[in-house]
Amino acid sequence: MHESGSTIAERSSAVAKPRTKAKRDVTLLSGTAALELLIMIPLAAFSAIERAEASCTPLAPVNNTTVDCTLATSNQNAGPGGNNGYGTNTETGLTINVHSGASVTGTVAGIDILKGTINNSGTVSGDFAIFLATGGTVNNNLNGSLSVIQSTLPGGIGIASSGNLTSLTVSNGAGTILATGQDGIAIQSSFAPTTINNGTGIITGALNAISVLGNGNLTLTGNDGLISAAGGTVTANRVAISAGNADITNGTGTIGSSAPGSTAIFATGVATVDNGKSSSGLISGSAFGIQANTVNVTANIGTIEASGAAGHAIDAAGNANITNGINGTVQALSTNGVAISAGGTATVINLAGGRITGDAAAIEAGVLNATGNINVTGNDGTISGGTAIHVAGSGTASVTNGTGTIQATGPSGIAISALTGTATVSNGTGTIAGNLFGIDAATVTVTGNKGTISAAAASGTAIGADTLDVTNNAGGTITATGVGGIAIDSSGAAKVNNLSGGIIAGAATGVHATALDVINNSGGTISGGIFGIQGGGSVINAGTIAGGTASVQFTGAGTNTLILQTGSVLSGNAVGSTATGGTNNLILQGHGTASNGFLNFNTLDVQASGSWLWNTNATIGATNVSSGTLVVDGELTSPVMVNSGGTLAGNGTVTGNVSVASGATIAPGSAVPFSTLNVNGNVNFAAGSSYRVAVNPTGQNDKLAATGIGTLTGATVNVLAQNAVFPPATQYTILTAAGGLGGTTFSGVTSNLFFLTPSLSYDANDVFLTLKFNNNAFHDAAQTPNQAAVGSALDASPKNSSLVTTLLNQSLAGARQAFEALSGEIFGTVHNTQAQEVQFGRSAVLGRLRQSSYEDIPGELGALGFGGPQQLAYASGDAYAAMPGKAPAQQGERLRDLTFWAQGLGGRGSAESDGNAAALTSRFGAFLSGVDARYGDMLRAGLMAGYVRSDLNVDARASGAGIDSAQLGAYAGGRVGALNVRGGVSYSFDSVDTSRTIAFPGFFEQTHAHSSGNVGQAFGEVGYGMAFNRVAVEPIAGLAYVHLHNGSFLESGGIAALSGSSVGENIGYSWAGLRVATAVPLANGTVLVPRGSLQWQHAFGDVTPTSALSFQGTGAGFSVAGLPIASNAALVEGGLDWRFSPQAKLGVSYQGELAAQAQTHTVKGAFTWNF
Length: 1171
Hints:
Elements: E1 7-8, H1 19-25, E2 27-28, E3 56-57, E4 66-69, E5 72-74, E6 77-79, E7 82-86, E8 92-98, E9 103-105, E10 109-113, E11 115-120, E12 123-126, E13 128-132, E14 136-140, E15 145-148, E16 157-161, E17 168-172, E18 176-179, E19 185-190, E20 194-198, E21 202-205, E22 208-213, E23 217-223, E24 226-229, E25 239-243, E26 245-249, E27 254-256, E28 263-275, E29 282-285, E30 288-300, E31 303-306, E32 312-316, E33 320-324, E34 329-332, E35 338-342, E36 345-350, E37 355-365, E38 373-379, E39 382-391, E40 396-401, E41 405-408, E42 414-427, E43 431-434, E44 437-449, E45 452-455, E46 461-472, E47 477-480, E48 486-498, E49 503-506, E50 509-520, E51 525-528, E52 531-541, E53 544-554, E54 559-564, E55 569-575, E56 583-594, E57 598-599, E58 601-614, E59 617-632, E60 635-637, E61 640-642, E62 646-649, E63 653-655, E64 658-660, E65 665-666, E66 676-680, E67 683-685, E68 690-695, E69 703-706, E70 710-711, E71 716-721, E72 729-737, E73 748-751, E74 756-762, E75 766-773, H2 785-795, H3 802-808, H4 812-822, H5 826-854, ...
Parallel strand pairs: 4-8, 5-9, 7-10, 8-11, 9-12, 10-13, 11-14, 12-15, 13-16, 14-17, 15-18, 16-19, 17-20, 18-21, 19-22, 20-23, 21-24, 22-25, 23-26, 24-27, 25-28, 26-28, 27-29, 28-30, 29-31, 30-32, 30-33, 31-34, 32-35, 33-36, 34-37, 35-37, 36-38, 37-39, 38-40, 39-41, 39-42, 40-42, 41-43, 42-44, ...
Antiparallel strand pairs: 1-2, 3-4, 6-7, 72-75, 74-75, 76-77, 77-78, 77-94, 78-79, 79-80, 80-81, 81-82, 82-84, 83-84, 84-87, 85-86, 86-90, 87-89, 88-89, 89-92, 90-91, 92-93, 93-94
């Protein structure tokens, strides 16, 4: 511990002693020894000195007065120990003002009082510049100087106080407080709290700049100047600031000493330091920058350093809590220097740009206490040293490294070391770099690494421990690049989880441990120049493991398991342990390819969800295929047991007996059709097992060839025939057993082709498969009426036609798919859409007639005149007259005679499948216009014309159509009292274009057709208008008759093209419902009209449209049905109109046709201007 000197002697006024004797009696005591003593100044030891002329008034000190010193004064008053500049060591309550240009000088003390306030702007000097026996306040202002004359007296003090004083406060602006003689102390107090602020001034003592004895507390509220221990001679190590507890705030100033063995800040208790005000703040000592039992650095953006050999920038006997701010520096760069040292726990935050650097260590703990700990809670700067972070004993190093660097600079340096303790590390995107070790401890846990952890020296280890648990994240790299380097090394257990994008690489070995628990995830890489992974235990790989000698080298006498999952790549042999008692297991999961060598493995267990390709030569003790498919394209020397749910395939060789359990399958061509799987041994099919064989019309087939005995009893052959045209009868050799079949046969055979029948035949060593056409009719495969119609047409077609032979080679599912693709049901569905299109004209005409029925009626019923199509112009009449709420037209007023109207609409529709025809989606747009006139008081009649475009898609049949329809019509309506009668006729001219994509297994064509048609309709409706209070209602009922006629057509395309006959259909519609409207006058004189209607519509007649079709290539005809028209549907309409002037209104409305399996929705917005 470094000592600070103090001048301690007994004060006595009884005997006057010679000065030289008094000086010999002065004793320099340690700041930590004899702290209980008081500072006593031997004033009685000084001989009387001639007093100079007085300049301080009053001349004699008086308690509780103000003293002004304006000129120079020397020895104005006599004290107990000799002459003072002013004061007799007995006064209290004085305020002494030393003005600029004045000087107060004493042989013993410049100013000597018990307690008071001293404001100095001049010069105060003496062996003690100011002595406040029981405390007070000193303000040393601009140009003020407090200095120790100290001609012969060691231990002079600039400002001193003694006894159990209340407090001492010193404010040094830009002044100077000096005690640079032998063992001089600039400011010294004892016991009580001391507060000091140093502006840009200088506080310098040879031994101490500031000293608080007796475990007293010091608060330095600021320093932008210089506080130093310098000058003169000393009999102990210099300490700039010494106290019991020190609370230090340093601004732009400097605290410290450059003398050998010196300390900048020393506290026997707690030192709390804020050096975070300025980057120029400097706390510097040769031996110690800061030394205390507990050190708290709350902020540092300047520099804290120890400049001498073996120095400690921060040294705590107990705990150290350090926050090194942005660009802050804590350093001990000389030989064996340590930046931060703690006997207990060092807790450190190092922000961006911060630098913590030591020659021996950046941060160390536990050197004196074997249980010391280091807790780096965040590092985005640089921590570097011979060993960057070092826990000397059995404690814990807990390190969170963000974007920072932790660097070991020594040739055998370790970035993070916990010797016999524990290291827990989280590395963000930062760097942890050592030479011999990156991280070394008895127990290491790396919770995550997205940056770099490395070791660069020969035989270096990036992460080493007796026990370790490492998670390496995406972007994380763990490397040992020196010759013989091991990336992760454990003498005991190693749990390693290398995530996607993680890299673990060693010059010699990637991962080594006695007990391995390694997971290398998809996208992860583990590699080594010799071994990728070495040790005993478990390795799961879905990434890449590479090694120059072996990708995986198992060791030891325990159970070793290598699990390869989807994405696994092994570069280098996987080698099992040869130790006595060792067991090596290989497990394949997911799907992938095994192309490397496998040595010394006792078992192979296939637990795949897909196929594993065995593209290597290896000897395995025993193989089990438990799930998925093992495709042997290389050579597998092993007895093979295929369990239920497993499949054995390939065109390679199995050397060993093959057993196929119930529920298991051998399928040589599962991966590559028409493969031959060779078995050097016996093949035994158990009852309930399967042999799956792929064949094609050219005679190619899968085959199983065994050198031993084939036992077939109880197994079934399943034939997968290629979708192609097979000859009438084809024979294949599907199994050969050189040792004979022992008289056994398969229990049966099945095929995926509905129209071909497989059969088996045998000789002593071979099994033969023959495919022949059967007597199954096409319609026997059908499930729906449309499928049956197509099937029957194919049954009636020539058997040698190209279309029929294409169908003969279909499976049952393929045949049904073909029937639907060939059906042409889109043509029936088109009829449905044509019949529905004329409803747009019917709706528009009835809307116009409903509108005209009430357009000249005043009062509530007039609200029923809203809605309908947009009225474009009137030849005559008052457009405002019929507005609900207005008075009726007066005698002689002309009502509307001629009205032009128009309606544009668009929407979407959908209809679900009825189980026969497929679902339909459609979109449509229409423009309809008309003109009508009044004839007398009762009748209005007019003409209508329009255009409708519909596009429909039947996705399940890959079919679509477009319909362009031009419509013409006439209508009339009349009113007899409250009864309204409305009706009309229309006729459309339709142009229809269709396209089909016909696709089923082994077949693809596209066809197109154009046809024409007409749709005529007649319709009528009655309504009865009524009003209830302000609500107008009109019950309505109506009938419509629709006749559809379409002409014949021929599709263009291939062998599946159809021709269609002309067709006519008759459909009837009836409806009944209610219309409701009301007028709501608004405060601004405008009117809001909400309206709605709900109708039930029933369709009857030819509601299921049909088309008479035939195949052009065969002439066989059939009839298919399209989607039926909904027999019952709800017609819903709702709208809101706002008439905001006599000539204009805005409106929005919705119309929908809602049925159980079909819906059509239309939304309209309207603006009407009458002129």
